[in-house]
Amino acid sequence: MSPVPDPADLDWWAGHLDGVPPVLDLPTDRPRPAVPDPGGAALDLELPAALSERVRAVAAAYRSTPFIVLLAGLQALLARLSATADIAVGVPVSGRDHPDTEGVVGCFLNTVVVRTDVGGDPTGRDLLARARESALGALAHAGTPFDRVVDRLRPERNLAATPLFQVMLNYISGVARPELPGLEASEIQLPELTTKFDLSWHVVDEGPGAPLRGGLAYRTDLFEPGTADKLTRWYVSLLDGLLADLDAPVGAVPLEPVTGPVVDGGPPPEPPAGAVHHLIERWVDETPGAPAVVGGDRALTYGELESAANRIAHWLLDAGVRADEPVGVLLEPGGPTWRARCSASRSRAAATCRWTRRTRRRGSPRCWRRPGCGPR
Questions:
Q1: What does residue 202 show for φ and ψ, rounded to 5 degrees?
Q2: Each residue's pLDDT tens digit, 2-45
Q3: SS3 helix, strand, coil % of the chain, rounded to 5?
Q4: Residue 165 neighbours by CB distance under 10 Å
Q5: What is the distance between the alpha carbons of residues 166 and 143, in angstroms, rounded to a whole number?
Q6: How far is CA 25 from the centre of its chain?
Q7: What is the pLDDT, as a whole number, of residue 258?
Q8: Is 111:102 a contact under the CB 8 Å cutoff?
Q9: pTM confidence score
Q10: Whole-angstrom Cα distance, residue 283 to residue 272?
Q11: Which of 298, 286, 296, 313 is nearest to 368 (CA)?
Q12: Are 238 and 55 in contact (CB under 8 A)?
C-alpha cells in the first residue's frame, strides 16, 4: 500500500464507486440512530463439511478462490434483504504484496470495496462471474489507501453509517499456529463487544478436509440476536442452493430449507365465495375468541378485529369516503394493517396498502392515529 496513491488508481476508484448507494437498506430491528452505539455482539458461523468442499470445488472449477464463491453468496443475500441490485462489500487486504514487507512487523492492512451488480436475476454461474470480475478489479487497485478513496469520492457523510459500505467480508486462508523459539502459542477467542460495521462476516479456511468456519459480528443498536442468527442460517441456505444448481436463477433459491413437498394433498380447495369482511363476520358469529391475525406486535381475535374494523369504517364513512374510493394505508405489517384493510372493505372503499419499516421512531404517531385525523 503506497502512502501516495497513483492518480490512475484514484481515477479507477472514482469511476468504480460513482453513484454507490450511501447506505445499504437492510431490514434492521430498530431505526438507525443518528449517532451509533459502539456496542456489538457476534455469533458463530460454520458451513457443513459437504458444503465447504463444494465451495472449494466450484472455486477451483472457475479458476478462483473460495473467497469469490463466499462473496457471491453474501452479495446475493444482501440483494435479497435490501431489495437492491447494487451491492458494495468491504474487504480487508493484507497490504503485504511486496516481498520486503514479509520481514517487517506492523499493520499494513487496507480496505477495498467490491461493488457488484446482481440485478437481472442471474444464474449461479453468472453471479460467480460478476463477483469474480468485481473482486479482481478491486484487488488490482488495492494499493490505494481507503481514506484517500473516500476523500476523492466525497460521499454523503454522517455518523449514522460508515462511508461507501456497511457490510464487510473477511476471508482468512491457511491459519496456522505461530512457531516461536522457546514459546508455545495458542489461540484465544475474545468476545466481540464492539463493531464498526452493520454486519461484519469472517470466514476461516484451514484447507481441504476442514469445514469453513467463522462468525458474524453485528451492531446491537440495529439487530437483535435472533435476527443475526437468522441471517447466518439464510446465508448458509442460499449458498447451498446456489451451488446445488449453478444454472438456476439465484432469486429462486429459498432462504429457508424446504423440508417437505411444496404442494401436498391434491389440488387446493376453491376459495369461499363472498367479500372478506363477510367471511370475517361469519367467523365472529361462530368463534369470536379464535385468533384472526397474529403479527409481531400482538394477536387479534375475530371479535377484536370486527370491533376495530367497525369503528374505523364508521369514521371513514363520516369523513365522506365513497364506494371504490382509494384509501391510503401506511403502516407496518401486523394487526393495525388488517384493521385498516377490513374497515376499508366494510365501508366499500378500496384500500391501497404500503408496508413501511424504519420510517418512524418507536412511539411516534401514525397519520390516522393523530388526534382529529382518525380513530384509534
A1: -140, 145
A2: 566 788 999 999 999 999 999 999 999 999 998 889 899 999 99
A3: 35, 20, 45
A4: 26
A5: 21
A6: 8
A7: 62
A8: no
A9: 0.69
A10: 13
A11: 313
A12: no
